[in-house]
Design a protein that fits this description.
α9 (206-218) links the parallel β6 and β7. The strands form 2 sheets. A 5-stranded parallel beta sheet has the order 1-7-6-2-3, with helices on both faces. It has a two-stranded antiparallel ribbon with strand order 4-5. It is globular and about 50 Å long. α4 packs across α5. It folds into 2 domains: 1-41, no CATH class; 43-236, Rossmann fold (3-Layer(aba) Sandwich). The protein contains 10 helices and 7 strands. Residues 1-5 have low confidence and may be disordered. With 239 residues, the protein is α/β, with parallel strands linked by helices.
Length: 239
């Protein structure tokens, strides 16, 4: 997060009453800007508490993974879909950061992610980054890293091709669209480490797979896990 945003955020907490990022009601500053009522209503998966869960099983036979989870269910037409759209498309990056803080605290409490060494967000291509001005996965990963007390690395993996958005593709086309689009540019930073890859929404799993496969090929001695902020019901129903 740029230093100037940290300064503005500190000032805002002094002169402005914190409000829930979801419903807008007043909330204590210690609650990561999500009120108790919304915390009870948010459709959490609780997958981070279970070593074998539907999102991790999505990659069975494709990759060797230590852990994998998603935080909440992405359901079309709900306030939770709208919440995600706010930080993906409307510049509300602070939502992503606060949800990351909450997710990171839950990952720490579960104990399954205790030996993570470094956290890497799914990178954007620099052209898309110029258009959006930020990468929402980076803010999610930043929040997770802060809560877990882990290193955040945004430089060791890059997206080498500006592929079309996954929203424009369906089925098998999603997998071919993201094939071989990532590369590890600083393998020396990651060798032998347990890496947690962070994404915003897991729909088919194709983008996550492409990034994890890139890391697996480049770093055979590394251990890999992933954490998606949201997952579609389709993936969750996979058995």
């Amino acid at each position: 997060m740029p230093a100037r945003w940290n300064i503005f955020a500190d000032i805002a907490t002094i002169v402005v009453t914190p409000r829930c990022l979801i419903c807008g009601c007043k909330v204590m500053a210690t609650m990561n800007r999500i009120c108790p009522r919304c915390r009870l209503r948010i459709p959490l998966t609780n997958y981070w508490r279970v070593e074998e869960n539907p999102v991790k099983r999505r990659f069975d036979g494709m990759l060797i993974l230590e852990q994998g989870s998603a935080f909440l269910f992405y359901r079309a037409g709900t306030i939770w879909q709208r919440l995600i759209h706010r930080f993906k498309y409307e510049g509300r990056w602070r939502i992503a950061h606060h949800l990351g803080l909450w997710y990171g605290a839950e990952l720490s409490e579960s104990g399954l992610y205790a030996d993570i060494d470094v956290i890497i967000p799914i990178p954007l291509h620099f052209i898309k980054g110029l258009r959006r001005t930020y990468n929402q996965a980076t803010y999610i990963a930043e929040g997770i890293a802060k809560s877990m007390g882990k290193e955040l690395d945004t430089l060791s993996v890059r997206r080498k091709r500006n592929n079309p958005s996954q929203t424009k593709h369906k089925g098998y086309d999603r997998w071919t669209n993201v094939e071989d689009i990532f590369e590890v540019v600083h393998p020396e930073r990651l060798r032998g480490k347990h890496i947690l890859v962070v994404d915003d929404v897991m729909t088919s799993g194709a983008t996550l797979y492409s990034c994890l496969k890139c890391l697996s090929d480049a770093l055979p001695d590394a251990r890999l896990s992933f954490a998606a902020l949201a997952v579609t019901q389709y993936i969750s129903d996979v058995r």
